[in-house]
Design brief:
The chain is of the alpha/beta class. It has two domains: 125 residues, Aspartate Aminotransferase, domain 1 (Alpha-Beta Complex); 249 residues, 3-Layer(aba) Sandwich (Aspartate Aminotransferase, domain 2), CATH 3.40.640.10. It is 38% helix and 16% strand. The strands form four sheets. The chain has a seven-stranded mixed sheet, sandwiched between helices. A four-stranded antiparallel sheet has the order 11-12-15-14. A two-stranded parallel ribbon has the order 1-13. The N and C termini lie far apart (54 Å).
Amino acid sequence: MDQNPPPTPAFPSRLPDAGITVFTVMSALAAKHEAINLGQGFPDFNCDRELISDVNTAMLANHNQYPPMAGVAELREIVAQKIANLYGYIYDSDTEITITAGGTQGIMTAVLSCVSPGDEVVIIEPAYDSYRPSIELAGGKTVAVSLTANRDDHGSVISYSIPWDDLTRAINPKTRLVIINTPHNPTGMVWQMSDLDRLANLVRNTNALVLSDEVYEHMVFEGQGHISASSHPELAARSFLISSFGKTFHVTGWKVGYVAAPAAMMKEFRKVHQFNVFTVNTPMQYGLAQYLKNADHYLGLSDFYQAKRDYFRRGLNKTGFNLLPASATYFQCVNYSKLNIPQAKMNEADFCSWLTTKIGVAAIPVSAFYAKPIESGVIRFCFAKKEETLSAALERLQTL
């Protein structure tokens, strides 16, 4: 090989501020130090063997070539039926449902389909880290507002709420898209119907569309039930609805999700989708279509994860962490600022690194969900783990 190869031409980065995600960094750090990984959001237990069998059956039935670009008809039909049964809104499975390569691809494709250079997109931080890069690749301008951090008498963050005054100021004639996330990652906060009413009031006399990221829709606790944007007809008429089979059925590595939207919006979505991934893994679509015929496979998920949440919270109550509410998702946020150790004065990223390398439990700093880190002493654990994993992690955390 030539020891002096010619230089690679320089070119401007499309994402000059993007680096390796904090999830990748913390997972690598956890692996290096053999820490228990409660950072990245994925289960460490197996999916239902019935789902594997359904996919295997589809493979053996020779469903192994390209499916329709929008997705297998049977899967789109049962998704439309599920949404109608749960949320009361009827989507046309032919023109208003598309199967995607996970929720993240659905988000990026939705943004690219409607945001033009100069358009403004409103997001609410802390926010999932794919929102900003999608907006930037579309040439849009991100307008970020922050959840209101509610504090106790000592100044510690104890909960979050929707920043309605800031949202009102942020939405204007230049707003093309408003991105909301309910149930919310990382805080576990959920929107109520009254919140959707207020959002509808803000966008009613604008041309703003809505992207509603609802990938944790089946993980809402205390019998609350998920309030989808599709539950609100006025918002449904201008919304991309994003969901994820990977999150719901413990198969995050499959990267299969779906997007629902009115036909006019879906027409533009599919124009981008066909040149993005074109279509999605065929046998998995057939397997999911079969598996979804039994609604118990997702209707029981809230109870399943609430039991894990409650077990984890009981253990955390024996530590010095202050627990924030965890109304939904499979994440638990805690405030470490009152721990009686010198490390309680560290910023969130440094604290998570110390927790991983010295205590042996990986977490994610909530500051990483902001473009400009806001330090509040709050970190996020994932409790989508086997009980023995959570027990081992709690044993280590209880030394703090």
